Amino acid sequence: MALINLQDITVAFGGPRVLDRLAFQLEPGERVAMLGRNGAGKTTFMKVLAGVAEASEGVVSFQKGLRVTYLTQDVPAGITGVVLDVVLSGLGARAGLLTEYHHITHQLHASSDPALLRRLDVVQGEIDRTGGWEIDHQANGVISRMKLDPEAEFTQLSGGQKRCVLLAKALVQKPDVLLLDEPTNHLDIDAIDWLEGFLKEFPAAVIFVTHDRRFMENVATRIIDLDRGRLASWACDYKTYLERRAHADAVEAVMVAKADKKLGVEEVWIRQGVKARRCRNEGRVKTLEVLREEKRARRGREGVVRMNAQEADPSGHLVIKASRIGCSFGDNCLVRDFSVNIMRGEKIGIIGPNGCGKTTLLKVLLGKAAPTKGTVRFGTQLEVAYYDQLREELDDSKTVIENICGSGDTVMINGKPRHIIGYLQDFLFTPDRANTPVKVLSGGERNRIFLARLFMKPSNVLVMDEPTNDLDMETLELLEELLIEYSGTLIVVSHDRAFLNNVVTSTWVFEGGGEVNEYPGGYDDWRAVCAARAQRTEPTQGGERTSKPVKTASASNKPQGAAKLSYKQARELDNLPDRIAELEIEQEETALRLADPELYKSTPQEIAKVKARSQALGAEILEAYRLWDELETIKSLSEE
Q1: Whether residues 36 and 103 fall in one domain
Q2: What is the 3-state secondary structure (H, E, C) of 418-478?
Q3: Best CA proximity match to 56, nearest among 115, 28, 16, 109
Q4: Listing from the earlier edge strand, what are the strands of the sheet with 230-234?
Q5: Calpha distance 38→11 (Å, rounded)
Q6: What is the dihedral of CA 434, 438, 442, 446, to 10 degrees?
Q7: How far separated are the first and last CA of the chain, in Å rounded?
Q8: How far apart are CA 310 and CA 381, in angstroms?
Q9: Percentage of the chain with pLDDT > 90?
Q10: What is the pLDDT of residues 178-236, one digit of tens each?
């Protein structure tokens, strides 16, 4: 028997129907992934299932005694208390006993008041009688996996941490139906992996809205797709869904084309001369009226975002050079002795647990914050565009237009003025929506505003902190294509495993204790290295396990008794960045001369001279970089 049954459900808010005569059944044990464009009505559908919103028409039936828990996309206002209280809220009398028990034990750390001890005995007895320890164990387990402090005040947490608390609250309630709206937003990869395993073993039925393709592939047993008010169900995995959906779209396009062709023929017939109209068939006239009505009722697909990153002139070959940098807050070491050369055109992904220091490292590499130790040197002709995780640059009190271009009505795109309304329509903002205050927009819409602002600025270095949150699948895939084709340098922080696999060419991983290591390839490549490293661990005769030593470049190449830099070498090292910058400027000027038709009107000797200098400059620049690395290595080893 179905847990929830929807029949002919309709919801409208003055415009086209958000939900248009939907039918849906949820069976026990199903794990259903819900897809749809931003604004398609996914949240409205979830609210109808949760019983917090009513349909304009239709019938919603729930199995008797059904318990439904709903995790919203936004954090509700008015929630107070410590983390443990919030997680346990909604569990009735047992939750109150557990909350009191934890508060008493917390107070007993500072006082051995006999009255507290007596009350603790009473509370423990009631928890034993009502079987509350199982709930306590599960609540603390979920809180621990989410890396939350059970005694932290909810109001003092970040937006992402608050979402984690509410997710923990939803999981410990053990409902019959669990509704999750974007559950992976703001979770790190470890927490996402844990949530995947938890939901696979969770006995309740689960419906979740997500744009995390790997999460959907690993968890969902069915996919539903909300498109233009209608719901389609696909009992298959995500890859098969994409194939079947493409076929269905092709069939729909053929049917629409046939209907339009038939309508065109009938319109020509009805407008024929007097003789044809006198003998026209009334049945054919009625058919024409039906075709006209069907065309009026037909809803076209929402357009796709048209994103184009404006690229500045290329930067120098070296973009950023970090030498033994460290970042700490008090006794908390976030980054320890990290060195790296970021070269032009690299695409780097950064992953690690929440709070490990990924954003801090970005700010240090961009010069927005100073490292605790070490140095950061910047290459030449850098034009940096920075996508901030918290979207701090958006003013919620202003409209979309005001956030993009202030009081003006035009923006410069590829050196040409363009009206702001036309530009925002590329990001799916209608004129009315473009004049809406940012504070009332959805997470996906806010994300598109920030992308619109970001891509207005010409850049050759693009730095993005969690760009995929709240983006629908189509926009996410377009962003991926844009970043793959971007010829500049990309540094991106993301927990989206599929996104990392598709975009980046190397990955920096925070592996604890301030250690940051670089691996070639994306997320799966890093996991393969971890698996190979685990396989190198062999059992000894005593049953213990020991790891085979792995020779690293830094260990094997370290010279014994390395000498310090001489005075001449130190001066040379200090002058190399400026020398390289001069060579690169000359190289660009030479390239411009070679591209100028006027050059080829001069003598053959002059043309040959310019070509020879162009080739020589390339060799000189490479040699300068080699020398820079060599001297930096000597300097680093002498400081150890």
Answers
A1: no
A2: EEHHHHHHCCCCCHHHHCCEHHHCCHHHHHHHHHHHHCCCCECEEEEECCCCCCCHHHHHH
A3: 16
A4: 68-71, 177-181, 205-209, 31-35, 222-227, 230-234
A5: 17
A6: 80
A7: 70
A8: 15
A9: 24
A10: 999 988 887 888 888 989 998 998 889 999 998 889 999 999 999 999 888 888 898 88
For the ranges 25-39, 348-362, 535-549, the lowest mean pLDDT is seen at 535-549
Comparing CA positions, the residue from 220, 252, 249 lying closest to residue 235 is 220
Beta-carbon count within 10 A of 540 CB: 8
State the chain's maximal CA–CA distance in angstroms: 108
Residue pair 400/438 in contact by the 8 Å Cβ criterion: yes
17 is written with which tokens? 């129907």
Number of domains into which the chain is organized: 4
Neighbouring-strand partners of residue 71 = 180
Task: Say yes or no: 470 and 407 in one domain.
Answer: yes
Boundary-marking domain end, from 241, 256, 271: 256
Amino acid at 281: N
Which pair of structure tokens corresponds to residue 386?
């920075």
pLDDT of residue 393: 67
For the stretch 399-445, pLDDT in tens is 889 888 877 888 888 778 889 998 888 888 888 888 888 887 777 77
Hey, is 487 helix, strand or coil? coil
Return mean pLDDT, the chain: 81
412/419 Cα distance (integer angstroms):
9
Cβ–Cβ < 8 Å for 450, 475: no
Residue entry with tokens 């008090």:
330
Q: Of 173, 208, 239, which one is at a domain's C-terminal end?
A: 173
d(CA 516, CA 522): 15
Q: What residues make up the domain containing 82? A: 78-158+165-173
Instruction: Please state whether beta strands 410-413 and 416-419 pair in parallel, antiparallel, or not at all (unpaired).
Output: antiparallel
